């Protein structure tokens, strides 16, 4: 009887551990390591200007890798936009790197679904698997996110917007009383 109870308990613990693993355990394992300097990034914006990640040195930056055709990306768009709006007031820049290949579809989706005018949308219209940006940032799954510190190093990597939101909330709390995230 004790053996059956013990084996049942072990089975329960194993199942609970497997269920407790989040999406990062499945999809973020190949992303660049925390502490790594973010690769160079220079892409055209939705307005046709060139945006460079280096232009944001001195600020925290959230990089979101996504595409308008991606169901998971579309599902979290409202949450990502809400975070971008909330943390823009704290000096955080959100750069949305799209892997769309159809300019019209991308532009239409951004214009219809992104109200935050402080966000930056970039795309070079290459398929994700062929994109130099995807290779440089080790993107194998979208959506994927990086949080980059003011010095250009990766502070966080994840496929979960909730984790980015939580980390930004922690950083804002640490930066009180001014509530602006700045380079030290």
UniProtKB/TrEMBL annotation:
Tell me the Gene Ontology biological-process terms attached to this UniProt entry. cytochrome complex assembly
Which Gene3D superfamilies does this one have?
Glutaredoxin
Subcellular location, principal: other
Report the InterPro entries cross-referenced here: AhpC/TSA, Thioredoxin-like_sf, Thioredoxin_domain, Thioredoxin_ResA/DsbE_sf
Q: Which residues form the signal peptide?
A: 1-20
Concerning Pfam families, the annotation shows: AhpC-TSA (PF00578)
The alphabetized UniProt keywords are: Cytochrome c-type biogenesis, Disulfide bond, Oxidoreductase, Peroxidase, Redox-active center, Signal
All residue ranges annotated as the Thioredoxin domain in the record:
32-180
Q: What class of enzyme is it?
A: oxidoreductase
Mind telling me which PANTHER family this protein's record contains? THIOL:DISULFIDE INTERCHANGE PROTEIN DSBE (PTHR42852:SF6)
Q: What is this protein called?
A: Antioxidant, AhpC/TSA family
Q: Which organism is it from?
A: Hoylesella buccalis ATCC 35310
